[in-house]
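Regression check, flavin-adenine dinucleotide case 379:
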Amino acid sequence: MDHLFELPTEYEDLRASVRALAENEIAPFAHDVDEQARFPEEAHKALQKAGLAASHVPTEFGGDGADSLAVTIIIEEVARVCGSSSLIPAVNKLGSLPLILAGTAEQKERWLRPLAQGKGFSYCLSESQAGSDASALSTKALQVGDGWVLNGSKKWISNAGFSDFYTVLASNDSSKGAKGITAFIVEKSDEGVSFGAHEKKMGFRGSPTREVYFDNVKLSDDRRIGEIGAGFTIAMNTLDHTRVTIAAQALGLAQGALDVASKYAHERHQFGKPIFDFQGIQFMLADMAMNIAAARQLTYAAAAKSERNAGDLRFFSAAGKCFASDTAMKVTTDAIQILGGYGYVSDYPVERMMRDAKLTQIYEGTNQIQRIVMARNLP
Ligand SMILES: Cc1cc2nc3c(=O)[nH]c(=O)nc-3n(C[C@H](O)[C@H](O)[C@H](O)COP(=O)(O)OP(=O)(O)OC[C@H]3O[C@@H](n4cnc5c(N)ncnc54)[C@H](O)[C@@H]3O)c2cc1C
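Current build output:
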């Protein structure tokens, strides 16, 4: 029992080193990245140099082979100072996981090695008319000779334009619904691939979100990931693992907001004493810390289940994502309250964290969808 519910030392060491990197090399640019809605180049360089931009890539393909809990801690610590930057490792894992789960050794060698070396990898499931009901997608993959021709468009694609590689889910047989969907790897340089305007977003403004268009994109059959018709299953299995990374992101945003609010409460004086001395403020901070602690336990449990592909992963990853993101929304909002007027302006990072937190309740499946997933997979 001695170390039950304590992380093994190597994870705490990892946290300490990522925290130092995040505070020194990412946090100083977070405000500008958000204000100018620009890609966090500094963070990308720092993460890449430290082997943290795509640390999940197995060692045999040039990565660090970081396990799910390690990736969770990396994303959490980066999100604690900059949500947009935390999307670099998160999107790279999301985009490449279909390949890791269902690709051949040759395919992994071809796309995972460059990913480990600094290329980006995005995930293209959502479309303008197919969001929560993702299997209603209408991008078409037509089998022509030995290969495929892709036509259609994807909406809301994170890091679109920055990423070199894209996992694209397309319908090869619309009469079969979800069973007529196949996964492909598309490269940015493929003829017929183009990108829409940058979405003007409330938060995560440093991560480009754009439409991706496919106009007669010709793909050889070695671009197909997994069996014909297995794409939707691969896409959903991917989300079971990567929802944990969104939980991690939410957790980091919440922790970042609590840290700022707690420090501020000790420094800010009103009525002749620190506002921390008022019980009303103490109760808010206590509730914030309590919910973050609960979210962390659930998220780490989900990460461990992701690592061993446990039978109840689907419930736990949905629960972790839902609970952590609802917690992040509440905690970041309360952090603003604790800072009063100063929380409402961008001199402090809590309003950015609140805007970022909102997205974690929406993407990789809204929290309504997470509750449906949980209900269908009750433990
Ligand atoms: C910034 C950003 C980045 C994104 N990045 C990516 C990405 O990289 N790749 C990608 O593929 N997608 C991405 N997405 C898409 C995201 O996953 C979808 O926005 C999300 O799944 C919801 O789809 P929707 O926006 O079409 O909402 P809708 O599905 O239209 O939902 C609208 C509302 O109806 C509710 N609703 C829908 N169905 C039900 C139901 N059955 N029961 C109860 N309520 C329901 C929803 O919860 C929501 O509140 C991103 C989105 C954003 C905003």
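Comparison notes: Residues 122-126, 131-132, 156-158, 201, 204, 209, 359, 362-366, 368-369, 372 surround flavin-adenine dinucleotide (CB under 6 Å). DSSP finds ten helices and ten strands in the chain. No diff flagged against the previous build.
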